[in-house]
Amino acid sequence: MGHPNEELLRMAYAAFLKGDLDGYLSHCTDDITFTIPGKGLTSGVYSRSEFVRPLISKVIDLTNGTFVEVLSAVIANDESGVVLARHEFFRKGRQFIYDIAHVYRIKDGKLAQFSEYLADLYAFDEAWS
């Protein structure tokens, strides 16, 4: 049995991977922020209300619905969690694949802050330019 916050992350991602964005957000605080690095079209800091639109809508539109996130590991303790994953999609006639880490701050049993870190920021920027 994992840490309760590991279970929190697994439940949130199970909802996200099924396309249940409201289900994912139900595991988040009202004031969560989502920080996406780089210089690409998806980069920036988004509020909870901006998560579905423009962020996720933009990802789906830019990839013509081919975006897939594949989880490889979930680690958590009392105050933070990390989700290791891979993003795969087609864009501009090419396939893009890169590894990422989603780092969360967790507060009172809810996801309170999200920051994305890339194994290769140059590949990420190329994918979203």
Q: What topology does this entry show?
A:
Blueprint: H1 4-17, H2 21-25, E1 28-36, E2 44-47, H3 48-62, E3 68-76, E4 80-91, E5 94-107, E6 110-118, H4 121-127
Parallel strand pairs: 1-6
Antiparallel strand pairs: 1-2, 3-4, 4-5, 5-6
* Estimated radius of gyration: 14 Å
Give the tally of structural domains: 1
Q: What is the averaged pLDDT score?
A: 96
- What is the chain-wise order of helices and strands? HHEEHEEEEH
Strand content: 35-45%
Please summarize the sheet with the most strands. Answer: 6 strands, mixed
Low-confidence stretches: none
CATH C-level category = Alpha Beta
Count of DSSP-assigned helices:
4
Number of strands: 6
Strand order in space, largest sheet: 2-1-6-5-4-3
CATH topology group = Nuclear Transport Factor 2, Chain: A
- What would CATH call the architecture? Roll
Q: How far apart are the termini?
A: 41 Å
Binned, the helix content reads: 25-40%
* General shape: globular
By secondary-structure content and strand pairing, the structural class works out as alpha+beta
Concise summary:
With 129 residues, the chain is an alpha+beta fold.
Summarize the structure in words:
It is built from 4 helices and 6 strands, in the order ααββαββββα. The protein has 129 residues and is α+β, with helices and mostly antiparallel strands. The protein has one domain (4-127): Nuclear Transport Factor 2, Chain: A (Roll), CATH 3.10.450.50. It has a 6-stranded mixed β-sheet with strand order 2-1-6-5-4-3. A hairpin with a 3-residue loop joins strand 3 and strand 4. The longest helix has 15 residues, at 48-62. It is globular. The mean pLDDT is 96.
